[in-house]
Structures are given as C-alpha cells and as structure tokens.
Fold this sequence. Notes:
Low-confidence stretches: none
Amino acid sequence: MQLVLTSVVVLAVDQAVKLLVRSGRFASVRLGPFGSLRMVAGRLWWYRSAVRASKALLLWAVAAGTLLVAAAALPTSHMFVGLLLGGSLSNVIESSLRGSVTDFVCLRFWPAFNVADVALTAGALGIGFELLRTVGVVAA
C-alpha cells in the first residue's frame, strides 16, 4: 500500500507542479546566489534517436517490474520503490506526450531538475541505503 500511495502522490504532485510552471502565470523567481526557479524544457535522448514513446513506455514497464520484484525481496524499501516508480512514470508520461520534460529548479552548480527528479534521486539513495543496511554494512 505504501508503495502505491507514494507512487501516486509523486506522480500527481510532479504533474501538477509542471502544469503550473508551463502555464506561464509565474515569472522566474531568483534564489539569490543559488540560481532560480524557471521553466526549462529538456529534450530527451530518445527524441534524438530512433527510440519513440512506445519503446520508452515498454522500457519503463520492464524497469517497473524489476523494481516490484526488488520490493518484494526487500519489504523495507516500499517507499523508496514508490518514489522511483512515481518519478519515472511522471517523466515518461510527460516526455511521451510532449517530447520533453519540464524542469524548473535551476541551480548554478547543477543541471535543471523537477519534483520527479528529486523523487528518483531520493528513491535510489534510499534503496541503496536499505541494501547496505540489509547486508550489515550500515547499522539499523
């Protein structure tokens, strides 16, 4: 249940924020010396290659199946797998429909990113930590 809820929340929040950013109702917001919040439409590698949306969705489905198997083997990872599934599905949906992903957090020292990217990073780090904890490298 936690896995599904986390996935749905990440997907909904990311899509809502991207819709708001694309609406153009808000100007760029400066974050002082750190950068700004502004829309950046990033084209994806598969739109510069022979891979199209249907193949991207198929690849996502295979990866999602793999993550679900991993979640079954590591029950403490359900929230992290939910972050990965929700973030990746949100980016795949948007890129399949629009040909690009809307990024809006632009830091001077990092490439532009969005809510889905934060969820993907947190999910990957969380699963990595859980794996280390499970094998005894990190104390519980």
